[in-house]
Each structure stands twice: as C-alpha cells, then as structure tokens.
Amino acid sequence: MNFGETTGRDVLGHILETDENARRLGECALISEDTPIHEKGILFYDTLYDE
Predict the structure, then answer these.
(1) What pLDDT, on the 0 to 100 scale, is given for residue 49?
(2) What are the φ and ψ backbone dihedral angles of 28, each rounded to 5 degrees?
(3) Dihedral over Cα of 30, 35, 41, 43: its sign
(4) pTM higher than 0.90, yes or no?
(5) How far is the C-alpha of 27 from the C-alpha of 13, rounded, in Å?
(6) CA 41, 49, 8 angle in degrees (round to 5)?
(7) Taking Cα atoms as reference points, which of 43, 51, 45 lies closest to residue 27?
(8) CA-CA distance, 15 to 18, in Å (whole number)?
(9) Region of residue 27 (phi > 0: left; psi between -120 and 50: alpha; otherwise: beta)
(10) Contact in structure between 29 and 23 (CB atoms under 8 Å)
C-alpha cells in the first residue's frame, strides 16, 4: 500500500509497520443501497453486524 497524504503520515506509517499483514485488505463487504442493513442508516461498531 502506498499513501501520499502528509497529515498523519508518520502515524499511519507506524500503524502499517506494526503487523506484517497490516498493508493488506482483509475482508470487505459491498452492499447495495436498497438493502435493509443500509436503509437502517446505523453503524453498529461491531464487526458481526457492520460486515
């Protein structure tokens, strides 16, 4: 992963260097706007629900 933003660059760099796989995307779910989850408009802050 390359990142070019200057604000917070050192912090992000440190985070990405703490774990050998931190630079890789793990899991990502794309949902359409007409799903019941999206229509709730809530971020649950829990990976079981926010996935």
Answers:
(1) 67
(2) -140, 135
(3) negative
(4) no
(5) 21
(6) 75
(7) 51
(8) 5
(9) beta
(10) no
Q: Give per-residue pLDDT as tens, 13-42.
A: 888 888 888 878 777 777 788 888 788 888
Q: Which residue has the tokens 């019941």?
A: 36
For residue 29, give both structure tokens.
């779910």
Structure tokens at 8: 């917070």
pLDDT at residue 22, rounded to an integer: 80
Q: 12-48 in b/e burial notation, b at 16+ Cβ within 10 A?
A: eeeeeeeeeeeeeeeeeeeeeeeeeeeeeeeeeeeee
